[in-house]
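# nightly structure sweep
# worker-07 picked up a monomer target from the shared queue
# config: single-sequence mode, recycle default, output format = structure tokens
# input follows
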Amino acid sequence: MGNQALAKKGVIEAISTTQIGVGKDADVYVGVTPSGEKVAVKFNRIGGENGLKKGRLPQSRLPRQAPHQLALRFEADCKKEHEALVLLSPIARVPRPIAWNRHVVVMEFVEGTELAELRDTDLSREEAERILDRVLEEYLKIVHFGIVHSDMSEFNIVLTKDGGDILIIDWAQYITTAHPESYELLKRDIIVLLNAFRRRWRVKKEFEKVWPEFESAGR
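# output follows
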């Protein structure tokens, strides 16, 4: 298991039963390092039902070698997410990476709440507009750097409790702006964000006014 290897390497001393996040393909728990630092420990679900949804074959059509192939895929996803955090944490609001092994990624623990978990009444329109501006500001820096998230949504934005800033999380699907699909995926990311804030908090930002900066940055 990846967590056992990380424990042997002195990265993690203990993992709490406290679950702090549930994604399409992963569960996130609180961990503690030997120095007493609280960290977030993300476990990708190898072969779980949710792991089959995004572009993978239905369970009934999986080839005999599929469990091993899925394990390799999830390990690759973890490596890729850790790689993205290493690249982006010096320049943008993403979690600071600590380590990865097999299907486990360890990163800094930041207390906060995913936007998707907030009730529509938890934010005023003015507060939501400020948060959207911060997300777009950070994402524009990331695109200028040469990376597209490609799965941006309210589920992948955390509102932190220390001053109400944001983190952009879940980078396993990132691609570079050199990728032939980056233009369409970036456009989709921006549309999804704007639609979510319009639907939930009545923040009206027109795509036509937001997109040109991102289009230019992604070239």
